[in-house]
Amino acid sequence: MSSEFFAAHMTAAEGEKLCTVEAEAAVSETAFGVRDIRVAEGLPFSESLAYINLTTLEGEKLCVEISGAGFRPVGVFYDDVVGPVPPPKHEGEEELNSGMENYETIYALLSARSSGFRHRFSERLAQRLAQLQEQQLLEECEGEEERKEGGGK
């Protein structure tokens, strides 16, 4: 089911409740690819608004707002909301539009801001695909053995 379909068919109350769930899920699902991530305890945490604090593998600290609009970096210190935070400028890159930076998922935010996260995410995905392939091969071998034992076809 696509996120547009899901968003179009949920009530406002369901959408608001997702902010608290989304914050907790973001922490547990992305801890592998950041130095630190946690729910912001010093900021409001409600059904319609939540914050997480994180430090990327490169050392960038962010306070991230989670609302119906998505994930938005709002501070460069934990529990600190100052407004939109432009992505760090790397040598050789042009200045990006520093307007409102909203991301649909925590994965999109981290992928845009952290090459280390992208690398770890890719490694993790490759490992999981290899595990699935290995599992599939084992199941195929077991199926072959059962067919041989069951009648020699």
UniProtKB/TrEMBL annotation:
PANTHER family: GSK3B-INTERACTING PROTEIN. Gene3D superfamilies: Hypothetical protein (hspc210). One of its GO terms (biological process) is regulation of canonical Wnt signaling pathway. It comes from Hydatigena taeniaeformis. GO terms for cellular component: cytoplasm. InterPro entries: GSKIP (IPR037395), GSKIP_dom (IPR007967), GSKIP_dom_sf (IPR023231). One of its GO terms (molecular function) is protein kinase A binding. Pfam families: GSKIP_dom. Belongs to the GSKIP family. SUPFAM superfamilies: Hypothetical protein c14orf129, hspc210 (SSF103107). Coiled coil: none annotated. This is DUF727 domain-containing protein. Residues 20-132 form the GSKIP domain.
